[in-house]
Design brief:
Shape: globular
Strand order of the largest sheet: 6-5-4-9-12-14-15
Number of helices: 10
Helix content: 25-40%
Radius of gyration: 19 Å
Structural class: alpha/beta
Strand content: 15-25%
Order of helices and strands: HEHHEEHEHHEHEEEHEEEHEEEHE
Number of strands: 15
Distance between the termini: 32 Å
């Protein structure tokens, strides 16, 4: 097992259980205890967890994996969600995208849609056919090479965990534009508390994206439904669509529908 694979597995264990023990991890990953200790020390140096005697623990209630370590979680579901969300966007619209692995899949699906790519032979492929406004550096990096998509980046201070730009610079840009649709990635959503993320700065920018849009889509795999996170983005009154996977429980789907949210499960 490669180092990156071990690190991903260790962070998954910490994210799931709140802590990890050296001996248990060594047995689970079939490596030596010395290797696990070295891995945990290096992850602690990157502020991804906190070392303890005999193991490591998460950084409290707002714990989150860095984006590079989340890309493999529920990958198939996120790709399907990305394709479904992209179908809710019409050619010529202005789309706001937050950060996160699920929204990255939305961006990738938009980038390869045949009606947006156009016909390069006729010259249409060189003209912007969609405008994407994002505060996520990784998404902007993927879309900027697509001539059919006009990419607008908010500015702001970058968070290394999510590559998202936050702060007054991002807020200032978003306060001057309007969107046809905003697509929000969240860490948690339920019918009582609405949509939440781990970081208050990201929550503020996500909320502003939602407020500037005519339609709001929350893209979240079913593992996020009914969970709790630190900072509130918005209540369900702002949400028009929830695009998730078929793992959503029937009673949860019914509650969202009763709250006026159209649920699309793929």
């Amino acid at each position: 097992m490669s180092r990156d694979a071990r690190w991903n597995a260790l962070l998954e264990l910490v994210g799931k259980n709140g802590r990890v023990e050296v001996e248990d991890a060594a047995t689970t990953l079939d490596v030596s205890a010395a290797t696990i200790r070295r891995d945990l020390d290096q992850l602690a140096e990157q502020h991804l967890l906190t070392r303890t005697r005999g193991g490591a623990v998460a950084h409290g209630v707002s714990y989150e994996l860095a984006l590079r370590y989340k890309s493999g979680r529920n990958a198939a579901e996120k790709q399907a969600i990305g394709r479904a969300v992209s179908e809710l966007v019409a050619v010529g619209e202005v789309v706001g995208l937050t950060g996160g692995t699920t929204i990255t899949e939305v961006a990738r699906s938009l980038a390869v849609r045949s009606d947006i790519v156009g016909d390069p032979g006729s010259g249409a492929g060189a003209q912007p056919m969609l405008t994407v406004v994002t505060n996520a550096l990784n998404i902007a990096n993927e879309l900027v090479i697509r001539p059919q998509i006009k990419t607008v980046v908010t500015g702001g201070v970058a968070r290394p965990q999510s590559y998202e730009l936050t702060g007054p610079l991002a807020s200032g840009v978003l306060g001057e534009i309007t969107l046809d649709v905003a697509v929000l990635g969240v860490n948690a959503i339920d019918t009582e508390r609405g949509a939440h993320v781990h970081h208050e700065g990201e929550a503020s920018i996500n909320r502003l994206l939602a407020e500037q849009a005519q339609r709001v889509v929350v893209a979240a795999d079913s593992s996020k439904i009914g969970k709790r996170a630190f900072a509130r983005v918005c209540g369900l009154g702002l949400v028009d669509f929830l695009v998730t996977d078929t793992g959503i429980a029937p009673d949860a789907r019914a509650r969202f529908t009763e709250a006026g949210v159209t649920v699309i499960a793929v």
